[in-house]
Amino acid sequence: VTSGATTGQDINAIAIGNSAGQTAQKSGALAIGNLAGGTNQGTNAIAIGLQAGQNYQATGTISIGYQSGNSTQGQNAIAIGITSGQNTQGSAAVAIGITAGQNTQGQNAVAIGNAAGQNTQGSGTISIGFQAGQNTQNLNAIAIGPWAGQTSQHTGAISIGNSAGNTTQLANAIAIGTNAGNTSQGANSIAIGNNA
Predict the structure, then answer these.
(1) How far is residue 112's CA from residue 182's CA, in Å, rounded to a whole number?
(2) In the chain, fewer beta carbons within 10 Å around the N or the C end?
């Protein structure tokens, strides 16, 4: 079934909307919405929403929402929410929420919540909560809670709680509690308790 596909649509692919699945839509792929899955939509990929999965959506990916998974969405990645996983989402990454994992989300990273892991979220990281791990969350770091690990959370750091490890939490530091390790928490340090 096709409404927009014009070049190289494989068997069992579905494209509905202006320029949906327009170029090289692979078998079993589904594109619904103007420009959804527009170019190089992979096998069994799903793109629903205006410009969702527009440019290179890999095999098994899911993008739901305006410009979700818009440009280079890795294999088996999931982006749900307006502009979630928008620019370069790594393989098996998950971004759920408005602007979650929006710009350069690493493979196997998880961002859940509006603006969680929004800008440069490293591989294997976890951000859960409003603006958690929002700006530069490094490899295997964990931020849970609103504004937890919001800016410059380094490799292996863990912040749990409202604004825990909020700004510049260094490698392997642990902050648990509201405002714990809030600003410039040193490497390998531990802060547990509200305002610790």
Answers:
(1) 21
(2) N
φ, ψ dihedrals at 137, nearest 5°: -105, 120
3-class SS of residue 106? coil
Residue indicated by tokens 């095999």 = 59
How far is the C-alpha of 103 from the C-alpha of 98, rounded, in Å?
12
Extract the tokens encoding 23.
Answer: 């170029």
Write down how long the chain is: 196
pTM of the model: 0.94
Q: What's the CA gap between 192 and 190, in Å, rounded?
A: 7
Q: Which of 106, 71, 102 is nearest to 85 (CA)?
A: 102
Structure token pair of residue 25: 């839509």
Neighbours of 156 (CB within 10 A): 19
Structure tokens at 58: 């890999």
Between CA 75 and CA 77 the distance in angstroms is 6
User: Which value, to the nearest 10 degrees, does the dihedral of the CA atoms of residues 22, 26, 29, 34 take?
Assistant: -10
* Pairing state between β 39-41 and 62-64: unpaired
pLDDT at 6: 59
Burial of 195 (C-beta count, 10 Å sphere; 0-12/13-18/19+): exposed
Checking if the pLDDT of 2 tops 50, the result is no
How much is the average pLDDT of 138-167? Answer: 98
- How many degrees, rounded to 5, is the angle at CA 99 between CA 95 and CA 79? 30
pLDDT tens digit string along 52-104? 999 999 999 999 999 999 999 999 999 999 999 999 999 999 999 999 999 99
